[in-house]
Write a structure and sequence with these properties.
single chain, Methylamine Dehydrogenase, Chain H, 3-stranded antiparallel beta sheet, RCC1/BLIP-II
Length: 377
């Protein structure tokens, strides 16, 4: 049943401990820890004609073809959108921080909901193209290529120091406490906490020529050049430095995805190269033979999901963060009402409850690691 549900997947999104995929027929399939949005049972009847899914750290939002939005997961970090539901019409796209969502409507209006959700004046956001978020701040890119930031300045919510350089912006990405923007000229502009990649070293800046794409982990950034090479900066244990033994392999790169502490480069050939946290870098080896014809990658805090051109999803990493879809995908979407009614599914459901109990220490560990990183000099 698990494999059947994860066929013909078109797009994947990830919270801190769960994934959700959109299939070709417009259905949404969630797996992972229910406390992080891995159980969409309560809204499953609404998850039809889904166009795309988005995630905070603890909840998901599904954008439907008709421009409406369905949310689930923990209430306070965006899983409960009832307060703004009447305004969630004609939505074009959605952005998310760790605790809040921001929906962009077709008329450029921005609707936000969730926790730690700072207000923003509508007149400050004319014709918004897209929005990106760090842990507690947002950055909106307007149709004119201007950046408008708001939220906690400790998390990159204040970009005034680099405002003059933020012209013709094409892309913005965010680490935990910093942002990096790619301009139309192929230059990169950073702001926010230096410890999280907010300062671009001069020796790195000199290498950033004709940048095509940016990616961000928890405390590092990575740029893909027109030559297919990659340049990284930030904390090495979060992927801010490419190991020497992998530099020769990082060629002909198409794009780069990231988890909390790892970068995953996808080459034009459809193969992948992973670097970052030494303790997790080898996890990909278990599925390396299946990682071919990859066209997209998505990641939770400590797990990846790769989408192949044939619609198959390959997962790896910590099972507690969605790294093993084979044991979790089926039941979290449609759990039985009573375990005794469906013996086999009920057995799996009970096993998943046990898994959920085991996940809590892992999630606490992840958040503890985050706090330790913040305090690091």
């Amino acid at each position: 049943m698990q494999e059947e549900r994860l066929q013909d997947v078109q797009q994947i999104a990830a919270s801190f401990g769960a994934f959700c995929g959109v299939t070709g027929d417009g259905a949404a399939v969630a797996w992972g820890d229910p406390d992080f949005g891995g159980d969409s049972h309560a809204v499953r009847h609404q998850l039809k004609d889904v166009k795309e899914v988005f995630a905070t750290g603890f909840a998901f939002a599904a954008l439907k073809v008709d421009g409406t939005v369905v949310t689930w997961g923990e209430n306070y970090p965006g899983g409960d959108s009832r307060a703004v539901q009447s305004q969630l019409r004609d939505v074009r796209t959605i952005a998310a921080s760790s605790y809040a969502f921001a929906a962009i409507k077709t008329n450029g209006e921005v609707i936000t909901w969730g926790s730690k959700n700072p207000p923003v004046e509508a007149e400050e956001l004319p014709a918004v193209q897209h929005i990106v978020a760090s842990h507690e701040a947002f950055c909106a890119v307007t149709t004119g290529g201007r950046c408008v930031t708001w939220g906690d300045r400790k998390f990159g919510g204040d970009s005034h120091a680099v405002e003059e350089r933020l012209q013709g912006v094409q892309q913005v990405v965010a680490s935990f406490r910093a942002f990096a923007a790619l301009t139309g000229a192929g230059a990169v502009v950073c702001w926010g906490d230096d410890r999280f990649g907010g300062m671009l070293p001069k020796e790195v800046e000199a290498k950033l020529v004709k940048v095509q794409q940016l990616s961000a982990s928890h405390a590092a950034f990575c740029a893909v050049l027109a030559t297919g090479e990659v340049v990284a900066w930030g904390q090495p244990e979060f992927g801010g430095q490419v190991p020497e033994h992998l530099q020769n392999r990082l060629t002909d790169v198409n794009f780069v995805g990231s988890s909390k502490s790892l970068f995953c480069a996808v080459q034009h050939s459809g193969h992948v190269v992973v670097w970052g946290d030494p303790s997790r870098q080898g996890e990909v080896e278990e599925v390396e033979e299946e990682l071919h014809d990859v066209c997209s990658v998505c990641a939770s805090s400590h797990a990846f999901a790769a989408l192949r051109r044939d619609g198959r999803v390959i997962t790896w990493g910590d099972p507690g963060f969605g790294g093993d879809s084979s044991t979790m995908a089926a039941v979290v979407c449609v759990p039985p009402k009573h375990a005794s009614d469906r013996p086999e599914e009920g057995k799996v459901a009970l096993q998943l409850q046990d898994v959920g109990k085991r996940l809590k220490p892992r999630i606490k560990r992840s958040l503890s690691e985050t706090r330790m990183t913040e305090k690091a000099p």
